[in-house]
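Hi L.,

You mentioned the student needs an example of a multi-chain input paired with its predicted structure. This one should do, with 362 residues in total across all chains.
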Amino acid sequence: MGLLTILKKMKQKEKEVRLLMLGLDNAGKTTILKKFNGEDINTISPTLGFNIKTLEHRGFKLNVWDVGGQRSLRSYWRNYFECTDGLIWVVDSADRMRLQDCKQELHSLLLEERLAGSTLLVFANKQDLPGSLSSEDIRKTLDLDNIKSHHWRILPCSAVTGENLLDGVDWIIDDIASRIFTMD
Amino acid sequence: MEASDVISELQCVDFGEEEIFTSCSNEVDTKFDLTIGHIEDIIMEDKFQTLQNNFLEKFYSEFDDTEENKFIYTDIHKDYINLIEKCLEEELSGRMPDFSMQEFTRQLAERKDDLEGEIFEMLLTFSDFVAFKDMFLDYKAAKEGKTIDLSDGLTVTSVDMPSGCDLFSLNGQSISKD
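Structure written out for the whole complex:
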């Protein structure tokens, strides 16, 4: 690691949190990001690269990185692991066909060394759609109860109505803050 | 070496007698301040500006003024950080014969709560992705919005006009496109 990176890590501001949002394509990552930021969500197209937003929330500065989820893009995810405090895994609760794929991708992420120590929030998104699975079903299908390596929580949510988005972000901040900022 | 390693290593160092620590700490401080002074000089010099400009020139066409970022920006940013780190290390070694980057980063870690000043803000900007992207977009905008310079000789340039008429500029007349 070179001078600039060392300096960056050293001077990471107090109350500054880096969140990485991942999940399969069409899970609603960008929509969640924009909804949370109070932006229009009617004209969102599939993300082919990545989006970054810096949000102020409860006195915290949140740097949220939202990376495209198409299969061909997943190999790029690794470039964004560094310094991640919290991982937000977004699931399309109505996409029953791909839940196994979703489970596999999540569990292989959790093996990543550079994500060790990060807090995991699973958003069971698209609860507004008829036929969507409950967060309890998603919890079982994704085998979340077997995750011992990370603090985790699952919440049902809807990026369209905004349901539970705030609760999820509040929880992940609290969990991160209790790990990092009480050390001093 | 990880910054945290540097810090934990520091905490393990036993300076033994306090006097030794005090007597050499001034010297260390002086050397540290000198290094910072050199870094300030280096990044203000033409050589560094040229290095940065060449880098911008080489890659600006990859950048688009859209909210979504391309993956290639991340690769370019990594190259940029490496380039600047390498330049700083080479320049510092040239100016201070006994310069050691490892020693310097250790000293930085030791003073991590007292690193105030523009120079540190500037160094932090180099590794900030959003600042990096903005720098490229500014460069690109300046580049593409530039007045066409015809001082080199005869050039013919068409200008997009909303009315559909064609305007040509011949030799010496410069038309700015806005």
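You could point out the following to them. Chain A has a mean pLDDT of 94. The first strand of chain A starts at residue 16 and ends at 22.

Best wishes,
N.
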